[in-house]
């Protein structure tokens, strides 16, 4: 495979894809997280779950008005896909049957708290299935750009936006860094090849430990 | 016990101020034609229970734009800016419910339960004003039942006894809503004779469905 | 239809059948209650529900190992029958979607309490679906012989066997009498053609009011 | 990720003292061949979660007769006199659960809930030792989740990815149990290729099923 320069979002998606294991049931949020499906390592096949009631999201081959993804966009299905109702969909999500979910974030903090569903007075899209996903999925991976558009940090000591879930995040992946959320707090596990510890430190408000085995990605 | 009615007979089941569950997820699996009829008839002060408020020009989204709602109990309003606008202007009372908890509350309402304990929303604004309980060391929120005066479903096929079959992601909230309203009306694409649906293929038993309106595939 | 003398159980079933309305969803217990289906008045069609997961019990036309009733016996299905799982079955039962259930009893009392699932130290079959049926069905009709085999009364001031449900019975039909359970207590609504008030009084321990419109059946 | 295994490979998933959910209602929709294998292998001290204990010579009934159970969590034991006998002799701990509450508890266990509030059993021995709550003037019992180490299901058809289809009253408790155990094994009559089952026809998604044993129609 020829090496091509990836844009920021693709780089994040590409790194997250390495966290998924063959056979996993995975729920990808709208936006950046959806891209993760494009970067699965060879030999890794995952089944994608959609909140609106199916397992086996696939490429769109023809538009079927009865087949959309959780964003309401035309979707396809893979061979072996299974359909069900919203009730069963959340039995799966809340019951720990989803191995990993990848979601975007407005803010994450060093306690693993996540805020991604509203900005009071400005934007209230609603939580949709996100609050269920973060308490139910075995692994909650946040994929987002490291800082907000105005440069302000998104990885904070404490979220100040309304939470989606409390102590729910397992991993944060940005274009600069990979953090895991542990009992001891955030651990910086990896930094990207074109950054350095100093830059990450400057762009991150949260306290974190630098892993002894810090890697580059 | 004739269940099949025409769109013209439908308005007798509408009343201003009623609560109404509407199946569908972003308009898919939604009884679009019945909703159009409700817009036409200007039924008002509705309490809508639905997954979302769709988009401004589709399904329940048009009820929002047309200011026919008093309250919306939904999990998502982001795709219909009009909902947020009316909410901020305090013209519309919006109760945002996590999608899984919405499904649970509707099912609890339809199944005679007093509620369910869910971990969803613990530590968030969702828990405000709700009973919390600790079961075996884990915190849960008690989510209470939802019912409505009328449920409006969308099915792919119905037989004349009201047995329903949904198609692909058109299923979503429809089967649960069939349990949780005093009057259940289904918009269907295709009507078949009783016996044409396999017993194992039926997704909503006909006893739950009061009325059927045959609308074809819609637009 | 020629009039034929009915035996005790058939007479009870015949009387109960008149309580069912066209279009009702009905759950009939094992034993005597099952017979109610044989006596439906002309023009009354009901759908019978089975706890193990279907609506539309019908006559057995051929034995299918996958099709049994709630007693585990071979069953049939009518045209338009619908199958589902046990979870959905009890959504229907508990959620008030069953219009009437007919059950047998060991004891019923004047407060509408029912005991029909165990005799301590002697017989503990278990409650099966009975406890759900009595709280969920819109109308709970008890069909039983008026007295126990040893002649002791079964309609009591107070049940002394473990209860199936508290204040759940709506109507009691025996070969001698029909009682309704009301806020004011039991009301004797009908007595059978071949008995009299004195006999019913002697065989009934419970207090009851005799209806001003007492009828014969 | 090969899911299809032979009966000979099955005993690696057994262990003395394990809890096991077994689908079926009076033996119908029950994995009879797997249960036979468990009898043969003399797995013991089992906690059985099942609708009933069937009859002495069928399915889980034989586990009772063969004294392989330590505890049974069931709604009905009347058709297997051996269960009552062992219970009275205090050789077997029997927890009788109303059938609807049993379905709820298994679903709660499989769906990550802390429990459900049900009116079933209020005012009876079933409420003893349980939390009771009043919601809007009505009394409810809190029924808590059930899970098991292993769930043994019976399906009519499976594809190689584990997607299952049940037939008629063989469905019963199977779909709920598929959610509520750490290891889910299905005995199936017929195995088909992935893609041969319609997405809308599948009753249990394959992701829930770990292993499949193909046994034909049994005896």
Written description of the protein model:
The complex is a heterotetramer, with two copies of chain A (217 residues) and two copies of chain B (219 residues). Chain A is of the alpha/beta class and 217 residues long. Chain A has a single domain (8-216), classed as Glutaconate Coenzyme A-transferase (3-Layer(aba) Sandwich). Chain A has four helices and 13 strands. Chain A has helices spanning 8-17, 86-94, 130-136, 197-203; strands spanning 25-28, 47-50, 54-58, 76-83, 100-103, 107-109, 114-115, 139-143, 155-156, 171-173, 177-182, 185-191, 209-216. The model of chain A has no long low-confidence stretch (mean pLDDT 94). By secondary structure, chain B is α/β, with parallel strands linked by helices. Chain B has a single domain (4-120, 127-214), classed as Glutaconate Coenzyme A-transferase, CATH 3.40.1080. Chain B contains five helices and twelve strands. In chain B, the strands form two sheets. In chain B, strands 1, 2, 3, 4, 5, 9, 10, 11 and 12 form a nine-stranded mixed beta sheet that branches. Chain B has a three-stranded antiparallel beta sheet with strand order 6-8-7. The radius of gyration of chain B is 17 Å and the shape is globular. Chains in contact: A-B, A-D, B-C, B-D, C-D. Chains A and B meet through helix 2 and helix 3 of A and helix 3, helix 4 and helix 5 of B.
């Amino acid at each position: 495979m020829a090496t091509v320069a990836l844009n920021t979002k693709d780089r994040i998606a590409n790194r997250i894809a390495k966290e998924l294991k063959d056979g996993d049931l995975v729920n990808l949020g709208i936006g950046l997280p959806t891209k993760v499906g494009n970067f699965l390592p060879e030999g890794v096949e995952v089944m994608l779950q959609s909140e609106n009631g199916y397992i086996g999201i696939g490429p769109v081959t023809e538009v079927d008005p009865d087949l959309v993804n959780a964003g309401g966009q035309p979707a396809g299905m893979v061979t072996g896909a299974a359909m069900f109702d919203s009730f069963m969909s959340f039995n799966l999500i809340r019951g720990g049957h989803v191995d990993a979910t990848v979601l975007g974030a407005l803010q994450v903090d060093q306690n693993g708290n996540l805020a991604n569903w509203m900005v009071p007075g400005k934007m209230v899209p609603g939580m949709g299935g996100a609050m269920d996903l973060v308490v139910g999925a075995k692994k909650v991976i946040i994929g987002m750009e490291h800082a907000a558009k105005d440069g302000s940090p998104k990885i904070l000591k404490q979220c100040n936006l309304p939470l989606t879930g409390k102590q729910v995040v397992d991993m944060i992946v940005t274009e600069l860094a990979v953090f895991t959320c542990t009992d001891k707090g955030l651990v910086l596990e990896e930094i990207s090849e074109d950054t350095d510890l100093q830059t990450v430190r400057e762009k991150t408000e949260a306290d974190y430990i630098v892993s002894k085995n810090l890697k580059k990605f | 016990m004739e269940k099949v009615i025409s769109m013209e007979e439908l308005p007798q089941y509408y009343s201003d101020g009623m609560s109404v569950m509407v199946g569908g997820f972003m308009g898919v699996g939604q009884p679009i034609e019945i909703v159009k009829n409700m817009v036409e008839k200007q039924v008002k002060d509705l309490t809508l229970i639905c997954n979302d408020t769709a988009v401004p020009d589709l399904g329940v989204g048009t009820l929002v734009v047309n200011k026919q709602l008093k309250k919306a109990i939904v999990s998502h309003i982001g795709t219909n800016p009009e909902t947020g606008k009316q909410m901020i202007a305090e013209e519309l009372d919006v109760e945002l419910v996590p999608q899984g908890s919405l499904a649970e509350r509707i099912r609890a309402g339809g199944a005679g339960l007093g509620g369910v304990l869910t971990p969803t929303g613990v530590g968030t604004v969702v828990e405000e004003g709700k009973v919390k309980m600790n079961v075996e060391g884990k915190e849960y929120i008690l989510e209470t039942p939802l019912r409505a005066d009328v449920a409006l479903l969308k099915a792919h096929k119905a037989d004349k006894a009201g047995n329903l079959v949904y198609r692909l992601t058109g299923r979503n909230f429809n089967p649960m809503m069939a349990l949780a309203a005093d009057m259940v009306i289904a918009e269907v694409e295709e009507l078949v004779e009783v016996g044409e649906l396999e017993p194992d293929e039926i997704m909503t038993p006909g006893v739950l469905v009061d009325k059927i309106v045959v609308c074809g595939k819609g637009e």
